[in-house]
Each structure stands twice: as structure tokens, then as C-alpha cells.
Specification:
The complex is a heterodimer of chains A (about 120) and B (about 400). Chain A is about 30% helix and about 30% strand. In chain A, a hairpin with a 3-residue loop joins strand 6 and strand 7. In chain A, helix 2 packs antiparallel against helix 3. Chain A starts with a helix and ends in a 9-residue tail after the last helix. Chain A is of the alpha+beta class and about 120 residues long. Chain B is mostly helical. Helix content of chain B is about 75%, strand content about 0%. Classes of the chains: A alpha+beta (about 120), B mainly alpha (about 400). Chains A and B meet through strand 2, helix 2 and helix 4 of A and helix 4 and helix 14 of B.
Chain lengths: ~120, ~400
């Protein structure tokens, strides 16, 4: 499998098929004497900013920490062994509600979107 | 029978997307200043958009990806960022121009200055997106858009010299005002080949759950819908040429000149029909571009998206279209001239085409996405042509903007 071609930047869904983001980064473990092994995928703005360069990455990490606290100072990671299916989307056997990935969307819903009449 | 219904609905929908303030204003300018000589630009733009829309639909139906998904996945985030920013900017300007069109229609109808209407127009559009479903937006609004057929009726009633109309479909060099001629030609191409049209179309195909059985439907909708839209644009050009020029108006530089074009044909009702056509066509475009902004961001970053879900369940998506609508209303609300903004945004659209169209060359030839439904020679030639055209337009747009703009 070609990781960059077949995994990176693909749509990620959780076990309930909720779209939770794209595969923004891959985390590999270096092992002495053996080839590196993928251990997790990363999602979120910090990872994306790091792809643009070291400085944007630091800025974004600072911004995320200021807005979201310590919980958001590092990129979100999903362990590779949770992978369930690779098709049009990549399905992970997790529930997004148990992660911090949707914290900002939940904040938007609770503080802005949900308060506007007719939001459902 | 079901297919026939589907195709006719699709055709009506694409007319709604095709005809908006850009094609109206540029066609009217072309007709007033150069008689039928620029019909070729509308014809060329229509042929290009037929190819791009067909490809966007085929890509979505076979790969189950929207064009935005495809670009991000195939080229990676860093490359995706450029078309993303370019299309967001172009869409922002186009949407501001469309809100300007709605506001001008309301000014024509009430006599109250257009800048007072910008925020209200954005608010009503927002209400449609907030409460409506994709079906209502796609079908309901574009049904109303059929009122623009009054231009076709008007053009036929004026009994143009059809030989001259056909002659206008062949590109020729102007014998006066060459810079203005080419600038209008560029704006017409920008108005016809709008990235939001094919991007929106691919999102619509996913919202409507298209699969490979829709390929024939897709081809029919793309060809007939865009031809239909192009016919209306040509009619606007014909009417403008036969009405405005004899009245001594050769340079359309003010929206208030435009309602004149239907009055000699329909009398007072001509004024009503023009105002309604402008208002409805632009309002439909505001909805489509507004949705497209949200689709683009949500698809690019992998959030939940879909116009059929409630805003509560889609907070990121609904926040993007809310912000996009009100931001785009600002330039009009502070009194920026809608006509100048329209012409400027159409020229910029043309210049941005290489960024949004180059990905088609790769996506539609990649069998991992489109299997054995890859582009043939003709489709690839069409994409290459649009890219070359886009580059040429980008190079000439900026100097023309300075020297030839209205």
C-alpha cells in the first residue's frame, strides 16, 4: 500500500459513519534495524499548519492552546489499529463523541448555531 | 419516464445556475457596444462549461467524490490550498455581485437605493439555506428562474436578421474600441465558465446520490441545460443590440439603463419582467454560491456537510454559509457599484480558471477514481483548451482591467 497515495488526505469516518475530518497526517514509529511502522493518523489544524512549515505549525499550536486549552495543544491522533475499513472513506472503530475532535463544532452549536431560531 | 422527468428537472436547474448577473450584464454590454459581433464568446463559453459540468458530474457519479474531495485527496493539502483560496475569493466577489443584482432589482421595484437592500437580500437567502432542503433550493428556485425565458421571447419578437446572428458566432476582429471588445469577451467567458457552477454540480450529484446509472442523464443535463442557459444569454445580447444601440446607448455603465431593453417589446410589463428576471436569477445564484462556499470548506477539511441536515447537526457547515453570505453583502451595503463589481469579478473568474481546471486533467484520467469512464480525446482536448484559455485570460485580464474596463 502506498500510504501517501491511498491514505493521506482521505475522508475519515467513525463507526457511525460520521464524517470527522481528513487524514491530515501520518505518525510512524522508527524501529532500530526494522522498517518504520505506522502507528496513528493525525487530524486537525495543527497538523495541517505543520505541513505548510515549522513556523505556521508553531503559530497554530499556540492559537489552538489559547482557544482550546491544554487538551488542544497537540494534534488529534487515532491509533492505526482502530482502522476498520479502507474504501471511498476510511472508517475507524471509534466514536467521535468520545474524542476532542468535535469540541469546536460543539462549542459553535452550543453558543452560536443552536441559539439561532430554527436550527432544529 | 422517470429519466425524462429527471433530465428536464436537471435542465431547468442548470438554467437557474447559468443565468445570473454576470451573464446578463456582460451580454447586455456586448450587444449595446458591438451588435452581434460577440455572440461567439457566449457560444465558446457555453461549449467549455458543457464539458466541465459533464466531467464534474461523471467524476462524482463514478468515484462518489466531489471535485473538492478529489483535489484534496489526489494532490494533498498543500496543493489544495491554492485552488481553495482562489475559489473562495472568486466566489466571495461573485456572490457580492449577485447580491448587488438582487439589490438593484429591489431598487428598480421600489425606488429605494440599492445599498439599503443588500443585508436584507443576504438575510432572506440565509433563511432559505437555514430552513430549506437541497430539493427546495435546487428545484423551487430554478423553476422561478424560467421567467428569464422572456428574453428569448423578446429576441424572437424583435425579428433579428438571423443571418447576422449566425455570423456573430464566428470570432472576428473589431473595427473600433479593440480593448473594450476584448475586455467584454473575457468577462463573458468568465461569466459562462464559473467554477462555482461545476463545483456545485458535483456536490449536487453527491447530495442526490448519483451512481454510474446516471451517466447518460448527466450527459443530457450538461449538454441541454448549458445550451439552454447559453441561448438565454444570446437572447439578452440580441435584445440589447436591437434596443439599446438605436436609443444611442452604446456603453452600458449603469444598471438603470438595463430595464429599457424589454420596454419597446412588452411595454410596462417589460420593466416588470426585467426586474423579476434580474432579481430571481441573482437570488438563485446567491443561494448556489453561498452553499458552494460551505461545501468547499466542509469538503476540503472533511467536516459533515449536506443541505438536508439541520444546522444544529452541522454547526461548521452552517457557520460557513452564514458568514459567507453576510460578508459578501458588505461591499454592496457600503455602496460599491454593483455593475463595476460584476464586471471585475467576471474578469477575475476567468483569470482563476487554470487553478480550478488543471485538476480535471488528472482526476478525470485517473482510473482509481473514474475506472473505465476516463476522459476521451475530445474531453481532454477541451480541458487543455480551457486551461490555455485561462492562462491567456490571466495574462490579458490585468492590463485590460486597467485600460479597457468600464
Amino acid at each position: 500500500m502506498d500510504l501517501v497515495r491511498d491514505i493521506l488526505d482521505k475522508q475519515v469516518v467513525d463507526r457511525k459513519k460520521v464524517k470527522i475530518g481528513k487524514v491530515d497526517g501520518l505518525v510512524a514509529e522508527l524501529r532500530p534495524g526494522k522498517p518504520p511502522r505506522v502507528v496513528a493518523i493525525e487530524l486537525g489544524s495543527i497538523t495541517l499548519a505543520r505541513r505548510l512549515g515549522a513556523r505556521p505549525g508553531r503559530w497554530m499550536a499556540g492559537l489552538a492552546t489559547r482557544l482550546g486549552g491544554k487538551r488542544h495543544s497537540e494534534p488529534h491522533r487515532i491509533a492505526w489499529n482502530k482502522i476498520h475499513d479502507i474504501g471511498i472513506d476510511i472508517e475507524f472503530d471509534i466514536d467521535v463523541r468520545e474524542t476532542a475532535i468535535f469540541d469546536w463544532q460543539n462549542w459553535l452549536r452550543d453558543h452560536i448555531v443552536g441559539r439561532i431560531p430554527g436550527a432544529g | 419516464m422517470k429519466k425524462v422527468l429527471e433530465i428536464s428537472l436537471g435542465v431547468v436547474t442548470s438554467v437557474g445556475g447559468f443565468l445570473e448577473v454576470g451573464s446578463l450584464a456582460t451580454a447586455a454590454q456586448a450587444g449595446a457596444a458591438f451588435h452581434f459581433q460577440l455572440i461567439w464568446a457566449i457560444a465558446l463559453g457555453t461549449i467549455c462549461i458543457i464539458f466541465l459540468v459533464e466531467m464534474a458530474g461523471r467524476f462524482a457519479a463514478v468515484s462518489k467524490h466531489t471535485i473538492a474531495d478529489g483535489i484534496r485527496e489526489r494532490f494533498g493539502f498543500n496543493a489544495f490550498l491554492w485552488p481553495l483560496l482562489a475559489i473562495l475569493l472568486v466566489n466571495f466577489l461573485v456572490m457580492a455581485a449577485e447580491i448587488g443584482g438582487v439589490a438593484i432589482a429591489l431598487e428598480l421595484a421600489t425606488g429605494i437605493g440599492f445599498h439599503w437592500w443588500a443585508m436584507l437580500a443576504a438575510f432572506v437567502a440565509w433563511l432559505f439555506l437555514w430552513k430549506g432542503t437541497f430539493g427546495i433550493i435546487e428545484k423551487g428556485v430554478s423553476m422561478l428562474g424560467l421567467v428569464t425565458l422572456c428574453f428569448v421571447v423578446g429576441a424572437v419578437m424583435l425579428k433579428p436578421h438571423w443571418g447576422q446572428v449566425v455570423a456573430g458566432a464566428v470570432p472576428t476582429v473589431p473595427n473600433h474600441d479593440a480593448t473594450n471588445y476584448w475586455f467584454i469577451a473575457v468577462s463573458i467567458l468568465g461569466a459562462s465558465i464559473s467554477p462555482y457552477l461545476f463545483m456545485f454540480y458535483s456536490s449536487g450529484a453527491i447530495e442526490d446520490r448519483w451512481d454510474e446509472s446516471y451517466l447518460g442523464t448527466n450527459r443530457a443535463i450538461a449538454a441541454m441545460g448549458m445550451t439552454f442557459g447559453g441561448t438565454i444569454s444570446v437572447s439578452v445580447l440580441i435584445v440589447a443590440a436591437l434596443v439599446l444601440a438605436p436609443h444611442g446607448i452604446e456603453q452600458v455603465d449603469d444598471y438603470h439603463q438595463l430595464p429599457l431593453i424589454l420596454i419597446p417589446i412588452f411595454g410596462f410589463w417589460g420593466f416588470v419582467l426585467f426586474t423579476a428576471s434580474l432579481g430571481i436569477a441573482c437570488f438563485g445564484a446567491v443561494l448556489e454560491v453561498g452553499l458552494q462556499q460551505a461545501y468547499l470548506v466542509a469538503q476540503g477539511f472533511g467536516w459533515t456537510w449536506g443541505e438536508n441536515e439541520k444546522p444544529r447537526d452541522n454547526p461548521g457547515f452552517s457557520t460557513v454559509y452564514t458568514a459567507a453570505l453576510f460578508l459578501s453583502a458588505l461591499p454592496i451595503a457600503v455602496g460599491l457599484d454593483p455593475l463595476r463589481l460584476t464586471i471585475f469579478s467576471m474578469a477575475l473568474t476567468a483569470a482563476s480558471l487554470p487553478l480550478s481546471v488543471i485538476p480535471f486533467l488528472f482526476l478525470l484520467n485517473d482510473e482509481r477514481y473514474v475506472g473505465n469512464h476516463r476522459n476521451g480525446m475530445i474531453s481532454n482536448a477541451a480541458v487543455l483548451f480551457v486551461i490555455a484559455l485561462g492562462f491567456a485570460l490571466a495574462v490579458v485580464t490585468i492590463p485590460l482591467q486597467i485600460f479597457g474596463g468600464t
